[in-house]
Write a structure and sequence with these properties.
Blueprint lengths: L2 E11 L4 E12 L4 E6 L5 H8 L7 E9 L2 E2 L2 H8 L4 E4 L13 H12 L4 H7 L16 H13 L5 E5 L7 H16 L3 E5 L3 H7 L4 E6 L2 E6 L1 H5 L4 H7 L5
Parallel strand pairs: 3-8, 3-9, 6-7, 7-8
Antiparallel strand pairs: 1-2, 1-4, 4-5, 9-10
Helix pairs in contact: 4-5
Bound molecules: adenosine-5'-triphosphate.
């Protein structure tokens, strides 16, 4: 089930600050593939993830379209039907995927019960979430543990579109590779997967992304295969693939 942003512009007005954070973005996340979204800090990657999953902040106003399976999504009600089951989000701060007052295990079991798609054990194994942590409360986890718990939570309904915002940010290389491989397998089973990451060395070493979109200042500035992007003679693009400037 492909997910798309078409001419999407997002303007934020918090009362204290206002500005355009996404500027006429076109982005296609196709079925069966891993798309990686890269870009400098603050360029709008999480905002693009929020737009694709119907979770923009209340201070946001958008124009343009979000399409899921080719159909424009209109309004809050339609997003309520799509979120979780059809369109899943692993948020950048995994802890926000959970309620503070219940253990992670109880919340994962509730998702298993609600969607009846996948077992907690299988989702935790796929997300590399350690089973011995399930009886802990969300705030008793390390940053890397809660991110993997949130990935298990996002995977449990087996959404056909999965957006993962920095799933490997706090992980050691081996665990990060396991998570990337799990995302690859999940896309291989047919899902449209978008992964936001700063982990370009892993991306290039493991060759897990089928396509890459590169953002700068609220715009998509380049899209294509990893090798094609890495070969571009543009200083901003080169900065991602050759951080030393060589
Ligand atoms: N909830 C919010 N309310 C208002 N503005 C926000 C909110 N979240 C993000 N922004 C603003 O939107 C812009 C894009 O932020 P975003 O989080 O999408 O960046 P990012 O590319 O994901 O950065 P990073 O790599 O550091 O996570 C920034 O200027 C940020 O200040």
């Amino acid at each position: 089930m492909p997910a798309e942003l078409r001419g999407l512009t997002v303007h934020i007005d918090t009362g204290r600050w206002s500005g355009t954070v996404l500027d006429s973005i076109d982005l296609v996340v196709p079925d069966g593939k891993v798309t990686a979204l890269l870009g400098e800090s603050g360029c709008g990657k999480s905002m693009a993830a929020a737009a694709l999953t119907g979770s923009l902040p209340a201070s946001a106003r958008s124009t343009g379209q979000v399409r899921i399976d080719g159909e424009p999504v209109r309004g809050r009600r339609q997003w309520q039907r799509l979120r979780g089951g059809t369109v899943g989000l692993l948020p950048q701060e995994g802890v926000t995927a959970f309620r503070a007052e219940e253990t992670v295990g109880a919340q994962l079991r509730a998702l298993e019960e609600r969607y009846r798609c996948w077992s907690v054990d299988d989702a935790c194994a796929a997300a590399r979430y350690p089973a011995e942590s399930v009886d802990l409360y969300p705030d008793q986890h390390s940053g890397g543990q809660i991110q993997r718990a949130a990935l298990a939570a996002a995977l449990l309904p087996r959404p056909r579109v999965l957006v993962a915002d920095e799933p490997t940010a706090s992980l050691d290389t081996e665990t990060a590779y396991g998570v990337w491989a799990a995302l690859r397998r999940y896309a291989g089973a047919g899902a449209a997967v978008l992964v936001i990451t700063h982990d370009v060395p892993m991306l290039t070493a493991a060759k897990i992304a089928d396509q890459v979109a590169l953002m700068r200042a609220g715009k998509i500035v380049a899209t294509g295969g990893l090798a094609a992007l890495a070969a571009l003679d543009d200083p901003y693009v080169r900065g991602f693939f050759q951080p030393s400037g060589h």
